[in-house]
Amino acid sequence: MGIVVGYVANPEGRAALEQAGAAALRLGLPLVVVHSRRPGKEADPQETEQLIAVHDAVRARLDEAGVGHELREVPDSEDPADDLIGAAEDSGAGLIVIGLRRRTPVGKLILGASAQRILLDAPCPVLAVKPED
After folding, report:
1. Spatial separation of the C-alpha atoms in residues 48 and 8, rounded to whole Å
2. CB of 98 within 8 A of CB of 6?
């Protein structure tokens, strides 16, 4: 059993990683960090260099905090929701953590498609966090 977190290098992803890491440390559970990439991103050498730096920073942050972790990169991801749900099923996770962004008043009526799929189809509880202002 462990915790799965969806990570993207933005404020929402950092908030999700922070909360997931704190929960993993508090509960003594391993953390599976899932980083989904859209098709075609690996072709750009600069993009690859930035990706390596992002992954190194995530590993360093979790190592420094003492959180046991595994980083799963999903290249050519068709659907990040499937990636997170699959990682939760594969690892027998007891929790999925995702980051949400603020939305306009109209946007608040419709939750993001990936977030909605994760909330409805996850095999375990889902914690949705937002970054601080």
Report:
1. 15
2. yes
φ and ψ of 88, to 5 deg = -65, -40
Using alpha carbons only, give the angle 57, 6, 132 rounded to the nearest 5 degrees: 75
pTM to 2 decimal places = 0.87
Backbone angles phi, psi at 77, to 5 degrees: -70, 130
Nearest residue to 57 (alpha-carbon basis) of 92, 13, 22, 108:
13
The pair of structure tokens assigned to 54 is 């992002």
Residue with tokens 């966090």: 129
Write the pLDDT tens digit of every residue in 62-111: 999 999 999 999 888 888 999 999 999 999 999 999 998 765 554 444 45
